[in-house]
């Protein structure tokens, strides 16, 4: 028997005896697809370094599997950091709205809120700005839920009329969606 044949026979015996145990170890530490890859990589290392594999190969194989898993986790972490950095750069590189457009939208939004009665404005702001539910907003406003619903309904109708005008800002449309 040649050296290559004896190496192949030894490797085959190691794989047949310990392949499932290496996979089980990898599976306990990862999902099935990654466990398959880790098992394959572990036995690739075993084949390449067959001369270094001790007579009791399981601990050695599990160390290789553990190191392979650690390498995989580091790769995933690097990719995630890179993805986050790229997302941050995209946000920084994204065109920002023109200052005059923002000022005009805010001005129109403030005019729309000023067109509401004080009670309607409070109702809109409690729901849209403070993020309260209608029930909680009614408590803050010191009225029944029914009264609050009427205030909010009237405010929405008034804002609807304002949004029908040609100068309705995007913020006003967003506000209408939030109080719906």
TrEMBL record:
The keyword Transcription applies. NCBIfam families: sigma70-ECF. It comes from the Bacteria. This is RNA polymerase sigma factor. Keywords: Sigma factor, Transcription, Transcription regulation. Residues 108-159 form the RNA polymerase sigma factor 70 region 4 type domain. SUPFAM superfamilies: Sigma2 domain of RNA polymerase sigma factors (SSF88946), Sigma3 and sigma4 domains of RNA polymerase sigma factors (SSF88659). The keyword Transmembrane does not apply. Belongs to the sigma-70 factor family. ECF subfamily. Residues 14-78 form the RNA polymerase sigma-70 region domain.
